[in-house]
Design brief:
The protein is α/β, with parallel strands linked by helices. It has helices at about 25-35, 55-65, 85-90, 130-145, 165, 175-180, and strands at about 1-5, 45-50, 75, 105-110, 115, 150-155, 185-190, 200-205, 205-210, 215-220, 230, 235-245, 250-255, 265, 270-274. Helix content is about 20%, strand content about 25%. It is globular and about 65 Å long.
Length: about 270
């Protein structure tokens, strides 16, 4: 099973540039083409928040147009730049988002790895949280299938990355999530976005990762007083391979662009190595 993760696309409408610098629509278009061109295509795509920049319906319409060429199911959760009601309208036809309720949580059951999408957003705030109501919902879902390998996907990371400019706006009560995960060892991985960088750690007994953005990156600066600046590093998304036999979700980076294609491996005597 292969899972592609695209995050923090920040799509604008009307051809406008994100932060007056980034053609985020063109970057997502290239990302979609790269995933479609993979020799082994993903089984599904997870969109882990900040899908559009201002949470407007017209931005979600552009997003849907850009995603349309994907030949596999797509599952979305909100980030702090998203609007719950507009996101719900944009993805209503697929039927996986709850039609009612304050949060956009759901479970994807149709694959070897059970997937649980979590809504960590706080309207009008850059940071996120998993409040008592959200944690209770997650606890109930985990209790339903204690033997099934499971991955969570959410926008705000629950752990400190060392990048103070982003850690100030992560999932504020992440340790409460960690307490829950220690009771449910079927959770093999937590997939996050928000930080616009590839980051991996082992946290509270679970492998946890943050996927980079195909649009733009946060500056890599460990200074506690670092400013919240961006940089145009190579556009990237994540690919996660579920090895059922080993019980591991193994993460890879997909660099987006034309790098000249594949070429064969020859040894020093010029012999082709299969």
């Amino acid at each position: 099973m292969l899972i592609a993760q695209i995050t923090d696309t920040h799509i604008k409408a009307g051809g406008r540039l994100a932060y007056r610098q980034v053609d985020s629509a063109a970057k997502l278009r290239a990302c979609v083409a790269q995933l479609n061109a993979l020799q082994t295509p993903p089984d599904l795509v997870l969109l882990t928040g900040d899908l559009v920049d201002l949470g407007r319906d017209e931005e979600y319409a552009v997003l849907r147009e850009l995603l349309a060429p994907l030949r596999m199911p797509v599952y979305a959760i909100p980030g702090n730049h998203d609007d719950r009601a507009a996101l719900r309208r944009a993805f209503a036809v697929e039927g996986y988002l709850p039609a009612q309720g304050p949060f956009l949580h759901y479970v994807v059951e149709e694959h070897p790895l059970r997937l649980i999408g979590l809504d960590t957003t706080i309207p009008g705030q850059p940071g996120g949280e998993l409040c008592a109501e959200r944690l209770a919902w997650l606890a109930a879902r985990l209790a339903e299938a204690p033997q099934r390998p499971t991955a969570l996907f959410m926008h705000h990371p629950p752990f400190v990355t060392g990048l103070a400019n982003m850690d100030r706006q992560n999932c504020a009560n992440g340790e409460a999530l960690g307490d829950l995960l220690e009771q449910h060892r079927q959770v093999r991985h937590v997939l996050c976005g928000h930080v616009h960088r590839p980051i991996h750690t082992h946290w509270r007994g679970v492998t946890t990762s943050i996927a980079p953005s195909p649009s733009h990156s946060c500056v890599l600066d460990f200074d506690p007083q670092a400013s919240h600046d961006f940089v145009l590093e190579p556009p990237t998304c994540a690919l996660h391979y579920w090895n059922a036999e080993a019980g591991l979700l193994i993460s890879h980076l997909v660099f987006i662009g034309d790098f000249g294609g594949r070429f064969p491996f020859y040894d020093e005597q010029g012999r082709l190595i299969d």
